[in-house]
Write a structure and sequence with these properties.
Helix content of chain B: 25-40%
CATH topology of the largest domain in chain B: Aconitase, domain 3
Number of strands of chain B: 19
Number of domains of chain B: 3
Mean pLDDT of chain A: 93
Low-confidence stretches of chain B: none
Strand order of the largest sheet of chain B: 5-4-3-6-7
Low-confidence stretches of chain A: none
CATH architecture of the largest domain in chain A: Alpha-Beta Barrel
Number of helices of chain B: 17
Strand content of chain A: 5-15%
Largest sheet of chain B: 5 strands, parallel
Mean pLDDT of chain B: 95
Order of helices and strands of chain A: EHHEHEHEHEEEHHH
Oligomer: heterodimer
Helix content of chain A: 25-40%
Largest interface: A-B, 63 and 81 residues
Largest sheet of chain A: 7 strands, mixed
CATH superfamily of the largest domain in chain B: Aconitase, domain 3
CATH class of the largest domain in chain B: Alpha Beta
Shape of chain A: globular
CATH class of the largest domain in chain A: Alpha Beta
Radius of gyration of chain A: 20 Å
Bound molecules: iron/sulfur cluster
Radius of gyration of chain B: 22 Å
Number of strands of chain A: 7
CATH architecture of the largest domain in chain B: 2-Layer Sandwich
Number of domains of chain A: 2
Chain lengths: 215, 479
């Protein structure tokens, strides 16, 4: 997994509440058996005026001029500013894959849906929860100032504004550790293989039917 | 010390190790997989040269992409017309063969929507931890299990280690007491709950559904409720084990038998919250006040009673919510203040892991019997949740009632729930759907979904617009 330590990037808006994973990456693109290549279809239904098909070349599709991510000033953005309950709906990891593939490294919102939040960390993407008023303030500053960038310092747990003002954020220590070091959690869990085997032995004695094969 | 909740007990039973940083390793008993969220996990295992920890804990079936059309379905995997769908179903089959995983193949008797076949085969049982790369895994919690959806990286993690790294969630009790009125079903109850607490109301919680109305529900009804826990933001929903649970599980093909059954029943008898258990949040609803529900917007919390009206955004004080309502009304092509009963339907979908079990089909058939679909409705799809539901429905002659009413009887699949196979809505079309998500584009690009119960869907199919199924049945509009 990609490590995340410090990141400075242009901020782009996704200014609506309850953005669901169907909106982040519509289902026709879930048919891929790969993890990459979802970027051109991120927010497909909002971004383009036509209906997207898997495997299509998106460079010739009609863009929705009203969608901010299509605006010149947000090209190359890597920090997404969003509203409450971002990433609700399905468990599809294609949502963080698409955000990542498009070039986003961090998402800031007042709240996230649980599964999406969790999936982000597995893909080197940092979801940051900030208070609603703070997020509102960031939206206003971003709209007011073209080229608005934020610096995210995971080690210090700070979002740094262009003027140097620091906004602290919370992050779970295990997730922070994994992200800072780009660690693969399967490898970490397998270090506890003996504990897992010991648990299985104890459990098998209590509830043997749990270990019977199906079919 | 205060007593434990059902969730506390299930957590405790599966705790392999607590780590200092507050996370824990939780052991997973049953891992369900389907074709959409598993290929990248298998690829990850191969790249890292890892083997599954316990292949006998994994059960696979293709459901999202398989055709519901009988003729296309008869051709098996090679007969799937859409190339990308075919590759996905084939990839699942190959991965299962390579790794020695049990798969209920496309046209085999055990096949069906993964959340329908788990409980009905006994592959998922009370007291288990169940995961699947699918958010509606919460369905299995109806058995008194800890069940939730995971992402693809976690699918790979569970395959490789049999464990999940978790942080304990908070406890929420949603208690529904009293008796449901006639014509009011589990679907209406869960929609009313989501309407009350909102789509983020359960975020960070495991929800236990309790109260006398839940206790008197069948297992099918409880599954409908737990299925939609995720629509209230909660990864896991659950119901305590009682006699209804035991009667349901007994005799299922993979349920414990003989002496093991006795041992299991004893073990499961403690799977309920203690009387003195403490919940972080308690929400109470009176069953008698719940009316048949219809969603009018693009989020499951945007729901109203069938006799109510579409809300007016001007009446909403909160700015973000107001724009949310305005945007939803525009997408849905509805006017503020419009009566729900005035919404006309183009298509009707009866199916999905929320409402495609035998009881759901019986409820729809009871309304459809002796009636026919309205001429203005282009299509009514009835898609059983599994091969075994299909066989049972045909034994009871339900398929004949449906076809006589002009409804189409299809093959088990997710179908129009998310429109990954050929079944989808056209842009602007309104659909009465028994599924669980009314997000923009969910059932087809530009499609407009209204979530309802199977009985309400069947009544809407006959009337051509939403009607209160209670009056509809009482009026005896039979032919
Ligand atoms: S029926 Fe719908 S919600 Fe259920 S598993 Fe299939 S696609 Fe997901």
């Amino acid at each position: 997994m990609k490590a995340f330590t410090q990141h400075q990037g242009l901020v782009a808006p996704m200014d609506r509440a309850n953005v669901d994973t169907d909106l982040i990456i519509p289902k026709q693109f879930l048919k891929s058996i790969k993890r990459t290549g979802f970027g051109p279809n991120l927010f497909d239904e909002l971004r383009y005026l036509d209906e997207g098909m898997p495997g299509q070349d998106c460079s010739n599709r009609p863009l929705n001029p009203e969608f901010p991510l299509n605006h010149e000033r947000y090209q190359g953005a890597s920090v997404l500013l969003a509203r409450e309950n971002f990433g609700c709906g399905s468990s599809r990891e294609h949502a963080p894959w698409a955000l990542d593939d498009h070039g986003f490294r961090a998402i800031i919102a007042p709240s996230f849906a649980d599964i999406f939040f969790n999936n982000c960390f597995k893909n080197g993407l940092l979801p940051i929860v900030l208070a609603e008023e703070v997020v509102e303030q960031l939206f206003q500053e971003m709209y007011a100032q073209e080229g608005y960038t934020l610096t995210i310092d995971l080690e210090q747990q700070h979002v740094v504004k262009p003027g140097g003002e620091r906004i602290p954020f919370e992050v779970d220590s295990f997730r922070k550790h994994c992200l800072l070091n780009g660690l693969d959690d399967i490898g970490l869990t397998l270090e506890d293989a003996d504990d897992i085997r010991a648990y299985e032995e104890k459990r098998r004695a209590q509830a043997p039917w749990l270990f019977d094969a199906v079919k | 010390m205060a007593g434990q909740t059902l969730y506390d007990k299930l957590w405790q039973d599966h705790l392999v190790k607590s780590r200092e940083d507050g996370t824990a390793l939780i052991y997973i008993d049953r891992h369900l997989i389907h074709e959409v969220t598993s290929p990248q996990a298998f690829e990850g295992l191969r790249l890292a040269g890892r083997k599954p920890w316990r292949t006998d804990s994994v059960v696979a079936t293709p459901d999202h992409n398989v055709p519901s059309d009988s003729a296309e379905r008869a051709g098996g995997i090679d007969g799937i017309r859409d190339e990308v769908s075919r590759i996905q179903v084939k990839t699942l089959n190959e991965n299962c063969n390579d790794f020695g995983i049990v798969e209920f193949g496309i046209n085999e008797p055990g096949q069906g929507i993964v959340h329908v076949i788990g409980p009905e085969t006994g592959a998922t049982l009370p007291g288990m931890t169940v995961v699947c790369g699918d958010s509606h895994t919460s369905t299995h919690g109806a058995l008194g299990a800890l069940a939730h959806g995971i992402g693809t990286s976690e699918v790979e993690h569970v395959m490789a280690t049999q464990c999940l790294i978790q942080k304990k969630m908070k406890n929420m009790l949603v208690r529904v007491d009293g008796e449901l009125g006639p014509g009011v079903t589990a679907k209406d109850v869960v929609l009313a709950i989501i309407g009350r607490i909102g789509t983020a109301g359960g975020t960070g919680y495991a929800i236990e559904f309790g109260g006398s109305a839940i206790r008197s529900m069948s297992m099918e009804g409880r599954m409908t409720i737990c299925n939609m826990a995720i629509e209230a933001g909660a990864r896991a929903g659950m119901v305590a084990v009682d006699q209804v649970t035991l009667d349901y599980v007994k005799g299922k093909p993979y349920a414990p038998k003989g002496e093991q059954w006795e041992q299991a029943v004893e073990n499961w008898s403690r799977l309920h919250s203690d009387d003195d258990a403490v919940f972080d949040t308690v929400v109470e609803l009176a069953a008698g006040e719940i009316e048949p529900q219809v969603s009018w917007g693009t989020s499951p919390e945007m729901v109203a009673s069938v006799n109510a009206r579409v809300p007016d955004p001007a009446a909403e004080a909160d700015q973000t919510r107001r724009t949310g309502i305005e945007r939803a009304l525009e997408y849905m092509g509805l006017r503020a203040g419009q009566a729900i009963g005035d919404i006309k339907l183009d298509r009707v979908f009866i199916g999905s892991c929320t409402n495609s079990r035998i009881e759901d089909l019986r409820a729809a058939a009871a309304v459809a019997k002796g009636r026919t679909k309205a001429g203005s409705v282009k299509q009514v799809l009835v898609v059983p949740g599994s091969q075994s539901v299909k066989a049972q429905a045909e034994k009871e002659g339900l398929h004949e009632i449906f076809t006589a009413a002009g409804f189409e009887w299809r093959e088990p699949s997710c179908s129009m729930c998310l429109a990954m196979n050929a079944d989808k809505l056209g842009a602007g079309e309104h659909c009465a759907s028994t599924s669980n998500r009314n997000f923009e584009g969910r059932q087809g690009y530009g499609g407009r979904t209204h979530l309802v119960s199977p009985a309400m869907a069947a009544a809407a199919a006959v009337a051509g617009h939403f009607v209160d199924v209670r009056e509809f049945v009482a009026a005896g509009e039979t032919a």
